[in-house]
Amino acid sequence: MKKQIKKSALTKSGKKGLVVASIGSFLSNLAHLAPIFIVMFFAQQIILKTDLSIPLYLGIIAGAGIVMYIFIDIGYDKTYNETYKEAVALRIDIANKLKELPLSYFSTHDVADLSQTVMQDVLDIGHALSHAIPQMFGAIAFSILVATGMIAFNPIMGLAIFTPIALSFVFLALSKGSQTRASKKYFDVLRENADAFQQAIEMHQEIKAFGQKESVQKDINKKIDHSEKIHIKSELAQAVPVILANIMLKFSLGACIFAGIQVFDFSQPLHLLYFLGYLMASVALPDAFATLHENIAEILYMDARLKRIAELRSVETQAGEPYDLKSFDVEFKGVEFSYKDGVKVIDGISFTAKQNTVTAFVGPSGCGKTTVLRLMSRLYDYDSGEITIDGKDIKTIDADSLFDKISIVFQDVMLFNTSVLENIRLGNRSAADEEVKKAAELANCTEFIEKLPEKYDTFIGENGAKLSGGERQRISIARAFLKNAPIIILDEISASLDVENEMAIQGSLNKLLENRTVVIISHRLKSVENADKIIVMNEGKIDAKGSHDELLKSSELYRTLIEKSQATEKFAY
Ligand code: ADP
Fold first, then answer.
1. Which is the closest atom of ligand 1 to the Cα of 364?
2. Full-prediction pTM beyond 0.85?
3. Which CATH class, in words, describes the domain spanning 409-484?
């Protein structure tokens, strides 16, 4: 646990805040003990008939009151404020980390899982941070101090009270494994549920269309029932050791009375007073330690969540320095890449996409065309070989500098639930409204935007739900116009454009592509016939490259693709 905190679950300021909060909690514990000490001290003075003046008594009480107030106030302030600040900092820190993660991380982790980490885990850790962790450290320091004092004052009495307390902690430590295993199991099940919910929501259209509502509902209900059982088991795995440990604490009182009878001479008032002091401690301390047991259980429950955040933190982000690219030839030299270990999706490909030319990729579905574009833009990092732009290995250029020079239009367009204007402005945050509108015009968006209820200010729903596929596609093309980057990557942009729209943007699209490095994928082979270079891919390798006319002569695969493409165009329902 301490290792986890030390390692990476908390931010730097959070670790410092935790130390401060623990000291605050220690001082607060100490302050709560002060009245008992004062009463004991006064009683002792009365028994010993010490000549203490009334002002001195009042002075001690007033002094103790002020110190108590300060300690409790500091304790509260440091414990809660510092740790709540950390809960906020932790969430921001994780969000920043997510921003820097390579896309490959997201293809191996569920979005539901990540959002659960950012929202729920951080909330739970925030609670543990403000309600359990500093209290635990504070209580440990406090108990060491009190135990040392009580054992030093009277070893037999001190040991009688603290032996059951110490044993209860040993017992709790022994149950650590089963507690963390059970809470990890529950944690995993919660993740699976969140994933199933997310999938059911995202796929609701398909689920309805294929009449799968009942079976999906049944499946989810089964998952919830299962998680309920796991939850009960995990609660039991925690509650049983805590209850047993709390019962062990109660032995302190019995041990105190038994030892007191042996040690003290009750005919002496002073002995009686000391016995009463130990008796009070044996009643009060077990209550405090029972809270500590619960704090420890909460922290053990956090174990899986802390590990999850630590794991997220330890993911390597893409390295690279800021670099101002000046020329824009993109070169692949023997590049290899796998999404999953052992399955090569790109298998040693080499080519150059020259500046001021259009390079088109064609090939059967799944041969790796989109992957080539992803590698080129560092959405994923290649495994071996080299990719250079301006002669510089792109792995040495930081992602922001690279993205600055690349515009990508994907076939799956992602839009934000904000206005049309702001969605286009994503291409260039500093663009004025007029520039945004000009880009929209070039991408042939004006017609449909004018029909929207609030024109450019219309909110377009989550991921542009209120727009058609073609309209979304044109917004993403408008972004590219606005960005005006020297390298342009177009991934199947005609897939969701109808012929009318494609023709309408053709002229301006050609203007956009002038004097740039253009890399394009299109299944409509007719649209790439004029490309300067066509690269035919098959199963992760380059089958042939050249102009349309050259390939017609040299590549059988290209001829087959052309035939299939023509057949598709003739296809009628
Ligand atoms: P194309 O664009 O030629 O249709 P892709 O580059 O999209 O092909 O895909 C090449 C191969 O990589 C396919 O087998 C596909 O299933 C696989 N693939 C694509 N994206 C991922 C991903 N994110 N994770 C794992 N495998 C992927």
1. 3
2. no
3. alpha beta
